[in-house]
């Protein structure tokens, strides 16, 4: 299966909340990022981050952040 890589920049609008514990005991958190399209339409996208990156999200709630990931 081919990987789809993504880079998004937007505003974190929710503090991360616990979602699940993955295989190996890795905790996963969920949050929401708002991204404004060039057309002026606002996209609200749920994101999932591992515990080791959740602190970065907490630090940027209400602010802009750039995320790199896969879907």
Content-based structural category: mainly beta
- Give the biggest sheet: 5 strands, antiparallel
Instruction: Evaluate the radius of gyration.
Output: 13 Å
The number of helices is 1
According to CATH, the homologous superfamily is: Nucleic acid-binding proteins
- CATH class division: Mainly Beta
Please name the CATH topology: OB fold (Dihydrolipoamide Acetyltransferase, E2P)
Give helix and strand order, one letter per element, not per position. Answer: EEEEHE
Content of β-strand: over 45%
Low-confidence stretches: none
Proper CATH architecture: Beta Barrel
Average pLDDT number: 91
- Please provide the count of β strands: 5
Q: Main traits of this protein?
A:
five-stranded antiparallel sheet; 1 helix; 5 strands; mainly beta; OB fold (Dihydrolipoamide Acetyltransferase, E2P); 71 residues; globular
